[in-house]
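== Item description ==
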Amino acid sequence: MVQRFLLPLLVVSSLLAYYWPTGWIDPFGKQISRYYLDWLIVITMFTIGWMLPRDELAQVAKRWKAVLGGVLVQYSTMPLLALACALLFQLRDEYLLGMVLVGCVPGAMASNVLTINARGNASFSVSLTTVATLLSPIAVPLAMRMVASMLGPEMNLLEQAAGDDVYTRSSIKLCYTVVAPVIAGFIAGRVLGKWEEHARRLCPVVANLAILAIIAVVVGRTRSQLHDLPSQLLVALLLLNLAGYAAGSIAARVMKLPDGMGRALTLEIGMQNAGVGTLLALTLFSDTCAIPPAFYTFGCMFTGTVLASYWRKSQFRD
C-alpha cells in the first residue's frame, strides 16, 4: 500500500516537515534527527536483506557476468553523468557535491518494484541491487575519488568539505549502515523462516516509511535554503535521471540482454539510492548538500513510474 502511494506520501511528508510550526519541538530538525538518522537507513537495509529471496546467491552466481557488467556500468557512468550535468548547469559548492553523491551511490529498492510493474526480470533487478549494495563500501569511495580527480584541486570540494579521510569515512559508514544490516537481515530471514509471510507484508512498509522520514529530515533541516532553490538544480537532476535510463538501455543492448533484463538494468541505473546519498550528505558533509539526493527521489519515482507504466503496456522487442 505504501509503495503504491509512495510519491504522494513523499509530497505530504515533505510539506509537513517544511511547514512544521515554529516553536514546536521539531522532530525533523538537526538537534533531534541526528539521534535517529543512521537508524533509518539501518532499518531500511535490514528489511531489504530480509526480503532477499533464499536463492538470490545462486541467481547471482548463475549470471554473474550480466550482474557484474550491469553494476560496473552503474558505478562508472552515473558519477560521470552526474558531474557532467552539474557542470553543464554551472552548479557550485554544496549543490555540485550533492549531485556527485547522487551519481556515486548504488541502485534503489524501488527499482525492483517498478521492474515488476514494467514486466521486467525482477530476479535480475534484485541481483543488481544486491551486488551494487554489497560493493558500495568499495565502489562508492572509488567513484567519489574518480570524480574528485576530474574536478582538480581548485574544485575538489570532497576533501575541502569533509577532509582527506572522507573516502575512508564513507566506506566505514556504508559498511555499518548499509552492508552489515543487509547481511543481518538476510540471515534473520533464513533463521526466522516461519515469519517470512508476515515479513513480506511488513518489510516494504517499514522500508518505505523510513525513506519518507529521511527525505522529511532533509526538508526540515534546509527550510531556509529551499526558498532560494535554483531552478537549474532541478533540471540537472531530471537530466541525470533520464541520462541514467539512457545509459542502462544502451548498456543492455551492448550486452545483448533479453528485453526483460534490459528493462531491469535501465530502471536500476536510472533510480539511484538517494536515501544512502542523503545519509552520506547529512553526516559527512552538510545539510544543503543533501538537497540534490532528496529531490532526486521525487524525480526518479515519478519518471520510473511513468516508464514502468509504458513498458507494462508495450510488447517485448524481438
